[in-house]
Amino acid sequence: MKRRHTTTGNLTRLLGGGSTPLFVMNGQRKLLVFNRGCEELTGFAAEDVVGRISHYGSSGETPVEELTAGLCPPPEVLAGEQRSTPAYLTTTTGASLPRMLNFYPFCDEEGQVIHVLGIVSAIPQPPPVADPTAAQTVHAELAALRGNLRQRFGQQTLVCKGPATTRMLNQIELAQHCQAAVFLQGEPGTGKQHLARVIHYGGDTKNTAFVAVDCRKLAASEIDRTVTRLLEAATDPAARGLGISAGALFLGHVEHLPRDVQRRIVKAHDGEEPPALRLFSSSCFPLAEAVEREDLLFELQALLTTVTIEVPPLRDRPEDLLLLAQHFLEDINRRGEKQVGGFARAVVKLFTEYNWPGNLAELFKVVGETHVAATGEMVLPADLPFRFRTGFDAQHLPPVEQFTSIPLEQLTSEYETELIQRALRQCKQNKSQAADLLQINRAKLYRRMEVLGIDDADPGEEE
């Protein structure tokens, strides 16, 4: 133990005072040296950074965690390879600096990496011949995108860049600067509740509570208690006098909200002083359909839909797919010791060919299971879970043959007519025998013949 301390001390004395930004970490990704050049570049002091464990990702709960994540070498370096990769380094001002990180691993006699030297340089123009891997490019692009979106929307995570989400992002930005009710419509698994949290925590009421209620899963009595408590707190005169907001209420699958609770919310907002409680809601369908089915009060629909945001499905966001998958992967890296760098090209191809019917929720589960299964630095096709492989195969099955729809009543009437006529022919128009053959009484046979328009003026009938 004493020898390790001495080695670290020597490294700090040797490298700590240089103006060229460089850093050193051990094989467990613990930062040992963060020199003066790095301090001047980022604004962080060495004591803020040294001793922290970095993870291969582009996010962190604090700016210094985001910086250490940016400094983490890709898994290939920890396996002994020398690499240069682009990265975005977070500064104390919140800016993201594009830089090239040049990693040099040092191994012991057994080939195990014991230290990694990182030298920070400007990104050369033109880029170096040894281009970074596709996974490292996605990693750097994600870091840049997250930095830009963080400055625009706050610390809550957003990963969007494609045209399908442009309108949605603009609406989110507008919603963050007002207290109007927000309704989010989209398929299951598209992240509607998360977007509501982004709006809430990116606005002026970010220090207040955000209470989420799933109207489809929770018991009616529990929903009633929760909403009643929030409305009481939001109408408390003492809280109003102190300028205190009760926060926000999110009603997921709002079309399942009990009728009496719907009336209570509408009544609370009908007064001269509506409650200081912002309303968020979500559904997979337009609320007008719920009103038409009489599942939702029209007054509540009008109250909830001041701002309506349509959340696109993942299949309409091809530009975001790989960035979202990388984001989920790096988030798992941050929470554990195992570090996976990205997805092999064959996996990327499969991901882009899949329709993702479960949207972001399905992608999150698939990435989580691949992270567990991966044994190397990258996710390979063999690491993909059974849920994905079966879904992918099912997607490529030939379509089910489509039949022309026939009204059930018409079909049954035609079949019944054919059976009665067959029985009458077999019994030579003797209705008593035909009724016995059909196992019904004679009176019912007459009634059915009249309804179906079967002629009963036939010879051979028993009187």
From TrEMBL:
Highest classification ranks of the organism: Bacteria, Pseudomonadati, Planctomycetota, Planctomycetia, Planctomycetales
GO molecular function: ATP binding; sequence-specific DNA binding
PANTHER family attached to this UniProt entry: TRANSCRIPTIONAL REGULATORY PROTEIN (PTHR32071)
SUPFAM superfamilies: Homeodomain-like (SSF46689), P-loop containing nucleoside triphosphate hydrolases (SSF52540), PYP-like sensor domain (PAS domain) (SSF55785)
Stretches assigned to the PAS domain: 7-52
Key words of the record: ATP-binding, Nucleotide-binding, Transcription, Transcription regulation
Protein name from the UniProt record: Transcriptional regulatory protein ZraR
Superkingdom of origin organism: Bacteria
Pfam families membership: AAA_lid_14, HTH_8, Sigma54_activ_2
GO BP field: regulation of DNA-templated transcription
Organism: Symmachiella dynata
Domain Sigma-54 factor interaction, first and last residues per copy: 158-372
